[in-house]
Amino acid sequence: MALKNYTSTIPAARSVLYIETKLVANGARKIQKEFSVDGRLTGIAFIIEVAGREIPFKLPARVGECEKVLLSMLAPKALEQTRKKVPEQAERTAWKILSDWVEAQMAMIELAQVELMEVFLPYVYDIAREKTFFESLKLNGFKGLLPAPKS
């Protein structure tokens, strides 16, 4: 498997700064970083005005999930010192992938190929429920999203 950026040497902080720069260049007014209990950066929340309304968004970087994938890619006989490097590599990889994704989406928006809400809709964030639009849909089994299957 050829996983994108799985050997990235770009520090996570640099990828995060790049994401913030792209968001601000495209209208973000407020940006907030979110951290896990153990101090790992887990996401970026931001607000952009869309159709005259301030809309909150939250982009996740699921570093723990990335770490599981990277560990599964190691040979069974991988050295312990190699395994110990995986958490930091997962952080770099997850944030670099998100940085690349944001860059691509913003390029499409800037070239009028898509609207901001077309690509960021799953990440609209309900502050009261602490869930993104996608998370809410998933929690409800995606009910009402598409017509019910025919019996």
Task: Please explain how this structure is put together.
With 151 residues, this protein is an alpha+beta fold. The protein has one domain (12-139). 45% of the residues lie in helices and 20% in strands. Strand 4 and strand 5 form a beta hairpin. The radius of gyration is 18 Å and the shape is globular.
- The rounded Rg comes to 18 Å
Low-confidence stretches: none
Mean pLDDT: 90
Number of helices, where a helix is a run of at least 4 consecutive DSSP H or I residues: 5
Number of strands: 5
Task: State the gist of this model.
This protein is an alpha+beta fold and 151 residues long. The chain contains five helices and five strands; from the N terminus they run αβββαααββα.
List keywords for this structure.
globular, alpha+beta, two-stranded antiparallel ribbon, 151 residues
